[in-house]
Design brief:
single chain; about 325 residues; alpha+beta; Metal Transport, Frataxin, Chain A
Length: about 325
Amino acid sequence: MIADGLRRVLLEYGAARGEPFTGHPLANFIRSTLPKGLIEALQAQQPNLTVTGSPGQGQWADVPWLAVFDASETDTAQRGIYAVYLFNVPAGTVALSLNQGTTAVRREFGATAPEALLGRSKEARLKLRDWMPRFPIGAIDLGSSRQLPKDYEAGHILGVTYSLSQWPDEKSILSDLTDMVRAYRALLFRGPPVDLVEEAPKEQGGEVLEMRQYGRHLRIERNPTAAKKAKRLHGTTCRACGLDFAKRYGALGEGFIEAHHLRPLHALEEGKPTALDIEKDFTVLCSNCHRMIHRMVDPSDLKGLRKILRAQRELIKAAKAGP
């Protein structure tokens, strides 16, 4: 049971930290047994999720965690958005938090990472105002002054906290977790709080709609696992203009191409899991074609982009031929 598993971590972790880390039963429980139980509980209603638990890397962590990842967003706690249980063992509390990958933000912003995380959390809460009554906790305390726990605190978007003194039953735990995943996927649909939109087109439908399209497509395309699979399957020649980077740039361009998601956004439903079909939902494009397809009204219209390219080639050919 998930409720019993979370409670076990709070009760046993303090004493376990005084014992050798390698091969410890509680470390194995957090890393293996508890994630398996969580994914089994979620799978029927919320497929296409992965769960990872961490008691630390090589040594006990100040804050052990158990994270739920949407496969189209991320598969690691280092980047992207995810739902996560964060344990404050000294206080006897665990927070179910919609949070952000702090490592990537720390790498990008350095010492100002907490401010960046707080800003993104605020932006995300604005997009999830309808979920705030369900998960009213806007700040968490993890009981540590170290950098990583403090970044977790800054990255918190919304959630709920459980205490050993008022421990909920299994039904409540699972209800909260299922709704948290729904809120998580609602945020991904509405546009996660990351700097993805650079040149959002404004015609036909308005700026907000087009920015949402651009952000959602690039979120999926920047998923490293999906992008790698797409490149392996579809090759490294642009499916729009035929550019092969290796032929153009030699060894420098060997293996380079960009993945592009083709599923029309109107086919996606908020709060529903996004199952990625690498063969049907992805193609590969050169950098220029990738940018241009995102300027189109429908960024999934690969045939339309090819038509534009053919028309332009004909115009250039006619101009060179002269009158």
